[in-house]
Structure formats: structure tokens, C-alpha cells
Amino acid sequence: MRSCVWKGVALARLSILTVCTGNICRSPLAEYFLRDALDCEHFEIASAGTHAVVGGVVPGQQIKIAAKYGLETINEHRGRQISEKDIHEADLILTASLRHRRYVVRTVPAAANKSFTMREYAYLVSHVQESDLAELFSGQKQNLVLAVVAAHQLRGTVTRLSRESAYDVVDPYGENRRTYRKSADQLIEANVAIVQFLELVEGYEGAFAEATSDPPAPLNLRGKHHFN
């Protein structure tokens, strides 16, 4: 993790790794979306594949979809294989499916607490409350890794989704245009929620300065996203 200065405060730079199978469809779209949406001074984003098409290019249909989000440079992406070094160095690993998460954790068991599917992470952070962040930041320097801690702490306490497939982004590779669109919709929806949460943590300056008698409300991330 590298560091930077934000409003005079030392702030660790969060390293995010997105993962799918070939590293030519889902994980590149997530990588380029996050790169475009997040401050590059505070977030370092890369992608890799569990069984990568090494040197492979992004399919034309995915390039067209990416262009709709202003991600024209995705055509420069080339597939690469994930390594143990990638897993060790990443602060937050976002996978396209549970299968990819299992691959990551089998490769580096210590990565379990920082590895989530994209849709899982979006679902978990929709339950993070202001009080959760206040408690995490209280007495600590700003640290974006707390965005990972906050989500991990909710595992086992938040009701699981009704179907395991609800945690996955559909694999569009080799499929028709409708499947590409469905996959992109699932992926972008999850990553919009992820960006909202990471930006909140990025700008969070510690516990609230003023006490309030009102009970803390969940962060306003849920309701816009559909996981089932």
C-alpha cells in the first residue's frame, strides 16, 4: 500500500484488484470503470485472470459496451494471469464470481478477509452504518483499508442472498449481445455502489464531531441496486 496526502492528512493508497477468468471481459470492464470513477491518487486499480487469455484483447461487444460509459481506452487492455504477488499486494480483491474468489483464497489463504465478489461487496457495504465507520476510524489515522474491514465485519451478520448466483456477474464471453448487456448491467450496478462507498470512506475524517441522540441510519446505498 502506498501513501498520499489528502487535505493535509496522510492517507494510505488502496490497491484494488479485479478478477475474472480470462481477464478480457468482466475484470477489465470493472478495472476501467473504477479507474475512471475513483481518484487515481488514492486508489491503484488493476485486473487479472484466473485462467487468463494472456495478451488477449477485449472482445468487440465488450468494447462497445465500455464506450457507452466513456471507457474508450479499454481496447488497449491485454489479458494477464493473476499471480501470488498480485494477491499479496492487493488491499481489496473484487472477483466476478464466487468461483474466482475461491481460486484466490486457495492460492493465498490469507487473502480470504480481503476478497469479495463484486456483487457481494456492494451488498455488504449497503449495510454499513455511519456508526460503523465512526467506530473504525475513532482514534486512528485515516486508512482506506478500513473500507475492507467494514465489509468483512458484516460477513456472517448480514442475511445471505437467497441464491449463490446472485453473488456472481454473468460470464458473457462467447455469448450473445443480450448476455453481454446483462453481464455489464450486473457489473456496473455493483461497481457504482462500490464507488459510492469508497468515496465516502475516502472523505471520512473520523468519528462524528458532534454527538447525536438519533440512531444512526444505514448509508444511502441500498434501494438503487438489485442483487436477487
From TrEMBL:
Its domain of life?
Bacteria
Annotated Gene Ontology MF terms?
Answer: protein tyrosine phosphatase activity
Entry-linked InterPro entries: LMW_PTPase, Ptyr_pPase, Ptyr_pPase_sf
Specify the Phosphotyrosine protein phosphatase I domain's residue ranges: 14-200
Write the protein's name. Low molecular weight phosphatase family protein
Gene source species: Ancrocorticia populi
